[in-house]
Amino acid sequence: MLVFRGARVIDPAGGLDELLDVVVEGGRIARVGRDAGLGLTGEKVRVIDAQGMWLTPGFIDLHVHFREPGQEYKEDIASGLRAAAAGGFTAVCPMPNTKPVNDNRAITEMMVARAKEAGGPRLLPFGAITKKSEGKELTEMADLKDAGALGVSDDGLCVMNAAVMRRALEYAKTFDLLVSQHCEDHHLTAKADMHEGAVSTRLGLRGWPRVAEDIIVARDLLLTEAVGGARYHVAHISSMGAVRLIREAKARGLAVTAEVTPHHLTLTDEAVLGYNTFCKVNPPLRSEEDRQALIDAVKDGTIDCIATDHAPHSTLEKDCEFPEASYGIMGLETTFAALLPLVKEGRFSATRLIEALSTSPARVARIEGGSLKVGARADLTLLDPERRWTISKEALRSRSHNTPLLHQEVVGKVQMTVVAGEVVWQQ
User: Quick check: 79 pLDDT over 90?
Assistant: First the structure.
């Protein structure tokens, strides 16, 4: 039994934000209330003094990259799950762009089995939309779901053919699979390095126009409406134009969802100055105007979730000329510290932040989690909003360290992560 005493309990699903006790027993939330843990003692009772800390539903990440199979030197499933636990995540959804691509039952089953061996957060993978993510022939989605896939995506590559995307939405609808689209018109981004604007001109780097994202979002919203009933999700949204399209679609009652990364909420293309390859990411960091639009969209719910797009790379892929560097920023362990300043600045509430990291992803994915109601699965995250720490290679559990926050002192630390009543991370 776990007893959390005196925590600030933030549970968007239950409308809670107050100082309470939470009792966990048998892998479930047993009691929630003032002095709910009072008098509970014994050898099998562990009491955690949580005064000054936030106790929230466990974070759920709908978009991570664990490089197993194929590039385990960057990250494998075991190290990725350790990083997830250290970041407060109790469930993660790896994208299928492994080597080989996760486009069949065997790879999906292998990933799920490796996660069970490693223990810790739940692993709920995405399978590919098309075979080898080539955008041509649909995968056997029934097999993928049966093997444990939560949804389908060709992340890293956009399904450019509208006819293929329409069939994908129709097929995925049959099996109630989430379709997560990487929205990028590759004809407009060929050989592009970063966001198209004054900074790219100043650095002499090929620009990546935001309209390349907007065009695909617009097309896919029309396809989703035409298909009817498909679950369409915009991955790592980055442009103010895409935000407008999603907002308008939701206003018309279209059941679409979207996610945004911490780095798109906190950084702009200015971070690339100096040719900082740790800030080379897909989609690229955009303008301050885009960043503000994304923050507002999180606040008003146009963007449902915050997902890290955790993309680990070794020094080999980042310590090189900017055009040759790989795209990606790791983010599982730095999410809370990166986003807490936005709460302190009043850009959105602590409740909305926790909702975007837990309750909303659970709703979008249609999985158990994101709640601290009595009887709910005991996936919890204990946070210290005042804890200062330095993001160093030694402090990180991931195999890679490609974050622009490296060596910076930040405020906000995960103190404990609990999955189904078991402590899987403790500071």
Answer: yes
What b/e readout covers 177-186, taking b as 16+ CB neighbours within 10 angstroms? Answer: bbbbbbbbbe
Residue 251 CB: number of other CB atoms within 10 A? 9
337: its two tokens: 């510290």
**Sequence letter at residue 73:** Y
Question: How far apart, in whole angstroms, are the C-alpha atoms of residue 417 and residue 40?
Answer: 21
Cis status, amide bond into 12, omega within 30 of 0: no
Residue 143: other Cβ atoms inside 10 A: 17
What residue has token string 């762009």?
97
The pLDDT, as a whole number, for residue 42 is 80
Q: Of 276, 278, 209, nearest to 239 (Cα)?
A: 209
* Active-site residue, from 61, 309, 379, 384: 309
| Long-range contacts, stretch 364-368, CB < 8 angstroms, 24+ apart | 364/62, 364/178, 364/233, 364/257, 364/304, 364/305, 365/60, 365/62, 365/93, 365/124, 365/150, 365/151, 365/178, 366/176, 366/178, 367/60, 367/91, 367/124, 367/150
Q: Cα dihedral angle (221, 226, 227, 231), rounded to 10 degrees? A: 30
b/e map of 109-118 (b: 16 or more CB within 10 Å)?
Answer: bbbbebbeeb
Distance of CA 38 to the CA centre of its chain: 36
Residues 6+ apart with CB under 8 A from 312: 65, 67, 74, 75, 80, 328, 330, 398, 399, 400, 402
Q: Is 311 within 8 Å of 328 (Cβ atoms)?
A: yes
Instruction: Report the distance separating Cα 408 and Cα 262, nearest Å.
Output: 16
309 catalytic per annotation:
yes
Is the pLDDT reported for residue 168 higher than 90? Answer: yes
Taking the C-alpha atoms of residue 169 and residue 382, their distance in angstroms, rounded to an integer, is: 38
The residue type found at 98 is T
Q: So what's the pLDDT on residue 43? A: 79
* pTM (2 d.p.): 0.97
Residue recorded with tokens 């080898």: 132
CA dist 286 and 337 (Å) reads: 21
Within 13 A of 365's CA, how many CA atoms are on the CB side?
Answer: 33
Q: Which of helix, strand or coil describes residue 355?
A: helix
